[in-house]
Amino acid sequence: MHTFLTDNVNKTILYNAPQQVCDRVREMTQGRFDITLKRTGETEEILRKVSAGDIQCGYSGVYYNTPKYRTLFFGCAIPFGLSPQEQTAWLHYKKNPNDELTFIQSIYKEKLNLNVIPFPAGSTGGQMGGWFKRKINSLDDLQNKVMRVPGLGAEVWQKLGMTTHDQLGQPISIDEAIKRLKDGRFFAVEWTSPYDDIQLGLNEAAKFYYYPGWWEPSTTFDVQVNIDYWNKLPDSYQEIFKLACHETYISIWTEYDSKNSLALKEIPKKGVEMIRFNNDVLKAAEEQTKVLLDLYAQQDQVFKEVYDEWRNFKDRIREWSKLTKIE
């Protein structure tokens, strides 16, 4: 198993997720099923290598991939998308209850010809909006500023006038991004939420902490498995692997919620000002999100099919969420 999570984020909660999957599989098989984890730091290369069979599996977030696989982002993070609870239901959703694969799993092979089956194995839950060098009073304050932010969220920020790190032409690690935030080359950097962000020292690089992270309301990370290697596993090992991934998904999510609630109390003590994005920014971001999603649906039939299914699911489950929400 290769993972993008290198030792430069070893103090974060997510760092432990891929090793946890490996450990639980090993424990449940009494050492007979052993997965070796390699922290290679690859991002979009992982999906390609797993599909080609160069590696048997990889742990990553699909929103680190190229626009060619933008459709897969519906299984990871969509701006103004599903809540963590709704996302969990979506990841397990099947159009037909008798289908072997979930809807998201079916996209990889059936729609994009990827020899991959993904298993959710980590959720950050809701996220913050990141660390900014100065206050944002209007959309004008964003123009031509540089921000470290991944996925579709980056594309929305670009529509609002910002430059994102992926436009700079070279991969940038989180520690390098923090260094650039400190010296002023970056205007903003986002990672996940209070616990991780403090562990990384982001509070020492900027003092304005914005919320909510509207581009990542329920971010999911997967173990992507080569289908040929998957089919070689005994049925019992497949079930154990799925269980290990699901357990990791839940435990990482709950650890984030628990530790973030404690870390949140430390934020004011560190001289940090927490600020909600103003309505103009949120409204513009939501409008541009819809513009982008509609545009990609016009350009790509597979994207449209998945987008329509996701939108119908969101509308349906949101009605249930509203009924059960206690103010």
Could you walk me through the main structural features you see in this protein, from its secondary elements to its overall organization?
- By secondary structure, the protein is α/β, with parallel strands linked by helices.
- The chain has eleven helices and ten strands.
- It has helices at 17-28, 44-52, 84-91, 103-111, 151-159, 174-183, 194-200, 227-232, 235-263, 279-299, 301-324; strands at 2-3, 57-60, 116-125, 130-132, 146-148, 163-164, 188-189, 208-211, 219-226, 273-276.
- It has a six-stranded mixed β-sheet with strand order 6-5-7-4-8-10, sandwiched between helices. A four-stranded mixed β-sheet has the order 1-2-9-3, sandwiched between helices.
- It is globular and about 55 Å long.
- The mean pLDDT is 97.
Number of strands: 10
- How far apart lie the N and C ends? 43 Å
Order of helices and strands: EHHEHHEEEHEHEHEEHHEHH
User: What is the mean predicted local confidence, pLDDT?
Assistant: 97
CATH superfamily descriptor of the largest domain = Bacterial extracellular solute-binding protein, family 7
| CA-based shape | globular
Strand order of the largest sheet: 6-5-7-4-8-10
**Relative helix content:** 40-55%
Q: Write down the CATH class of the largest domain.
A: Alpha Beta
The tally of domains stands at 2
CATH architecture designation of the largest domain: 3-Layer(aba) Sandwich
Low-confidence stretches: none
Tell me about the largest β-sheet.
Answer: 6 strands, mixed
- Quickly give the structural class: alpha/beta
- Which value, in Å, is the CA radius of gyration? 19 Å
Briefly note the CATH topology name of the largest domain. Answer: D-Maltodextrin-Binding Protein, domain 2
Enumerate how many helices there are, as a single number: 11
Give the amount of beta strand, in percent: 5-15%
